[in-house]
User: What shape does this take?
Amino acid sequence: MVYQEEISQKQQLEWYKNLDPATNLYLIIENNDTSCGLINIKNINPDTGNSESGLFIWKEDLTRSHLPVLASWLLSETGYGIAGGPGTEIKVLKSNNSAIEFNKKMGFNITREENDIVFMYQSKKSFSEATRSSRERFLQGRKEGHEIDLSFNDHENDDFILANFLKLTDQHKDLRKTISDRHYSFTITF
Assistant: This one.
């Protein structure tokens, strides 16, 4: 995420209320039941399915852990495997070499640079080719199975976000299992 200024809780709530839930999906990353980051698929183009995406870990001690990799995989699997999008663009500060290198390992390619921002694009194919062997090794070591759990809380916008997310994922109903009216599990196939 490129925005670097600190904002108040009131400003953040105002920003969140003004998002179009039909084209913006923001998910909180939790680790051991503690919120520690955010991933998003935003500005989803209804005609092409392309989008922008982002990842932010605010717990400094987790930025070099397995969590950013898993969150990035989750974001891509959600965008490609569940919502069916063909590709996503990200913006990275040119000075953030570690983020640029990290994203290259996730299948992103630099498409252009403007001022202090690097634009990168990842297609479903480039994601799959860059990460397939790592994801397969990870899943082979899991005892829990190949599911991604997504749950929606009771925020006033979550009902609309949930309805739009379910509409986005209707094309893959066979992968979706309802756990409760606000909690869904998706089977991931590589």
About this structure: The chain has five helices and nine strands.
